[in-house]
Design brief:
The chain is of the alpha/beta class. The protein has one domain: Cytosolic phospholipase A2 catalytic domain (3-Layer(aba) Sandwich), CATH 3.40.1090. It contains eight helices and eight strands, in the order E-H-E-H-H-H-E-E-H-E-E-E-H-E-H-H. Strands 1, 2, 3, 4, 5, 6, 7 and 8 form an eight-stranded mixed β-sheet that branches. The radius of gyration is 16 Å and the shape is globular.
Length: 240
């Protein structure tokens, strides 16, 4: 810890489907190659970002992750998404991973703690997109995709001297939705900095990367996710 109580490094990773998983993990790997290793840092993941955070903490590579068999969707059968997340993360728990999901009752953002809940369960909850997957039950409560309320939830990130924010749906991404994510992310960054006084390094798709996914359904295309990883890797590597 530093004198003001911040850890040196933390991460906050946002949603964006398979595209978002690829982009985030590419950036994270690019940073690692440049000496910025987030694997033991406090990480907060939302939706796709929860996959990236859990995988990073466990040392699961994108090459391994992309081969996981995902359920066809929409699929509203209870527990189907958790079966896929369990393939990747097993019963592992990690205290440095927190995940944002929304409680079905009241749609309130809830921060789930990887010291108390298996990563596979948390990731399934944060990725349960309404209409595509059934809510995930945790301790008798139902949760859905954390992105319903906020694309990244930067304001909930751990206190740090440097916060790495990855927002796959901000930057040069498509349409009015992008503008909402961009504004909300910047507002949350300002809130976080006002409280914790740390520096923020924001990664969001540049014009070239954004061309990979120009329509909403592109976000769930595996091939585009793989391409996004390659672009994120370049952006992360060139950040230093």
């Amino acid at each position: 810890m530093t004198e003001k109580g911040n850890v040196p490094l933390a991460g906050a990773f946002g949603g964006g489907g398979l595209f978002g998983i690829g982009y985030a993990m590419g950036v994270i790997e690019g940073l690692r190659q440049q000496g910025i290793d987030l694997s033991t840092a406090p990480m907060l993941g939302t939706s796709a970002g929860s996959w990236a955070a859990a995988a990073t903490a466990l040392g699961v590579t994108f090459s391994s992750l992309k081969d996981v068999k995902m359920p066809r969707f929409p699929n509203l059968r209870a527990g189907v998404l958790a079966q896929s997340t369990h393939q990747v993360f097993g019963d592992a728990m990690r205290p440095n991973v927190h995940v944002v999901a929304c409680a079905v009752r009241g749609l309130k953002r809830t921060e789930l703690d990887g010291a108390l809940i298996p990563l596979a369960t948390m990731v399934a909850a944060s990725s349960a997109v309404p209409g595509l997957f059934a809510p995930q039950s945790i301790n008798g409560r139902l949760y859905i995709d954390g992105g319903v309320r906020s694309g990244v939830s930067v304001d909930l990130a751990a206190p740090a001297d440097l916060l790495i924010v990855i927002a796959p749906l901000a930057g040069a991404m498509f349409g009015p939705f992008n503008n909402i994510v961009e504004r909300n992310t910047q507002r949350e960054i300002n809130q976080w900095q006002n409280v914790h006084l740390g520096k923020v390094r924001l990664f969001a798709p540049n014009n070239t990367t954004a061309k990979i996914a120009t329509l909403p359904h592109h976000l769930f295309d595996k091939a585009r996710g793989i391409e996004a990883y390659a672009h994120g890797l370049i952006e992360g590597t060139q950040a230093i």
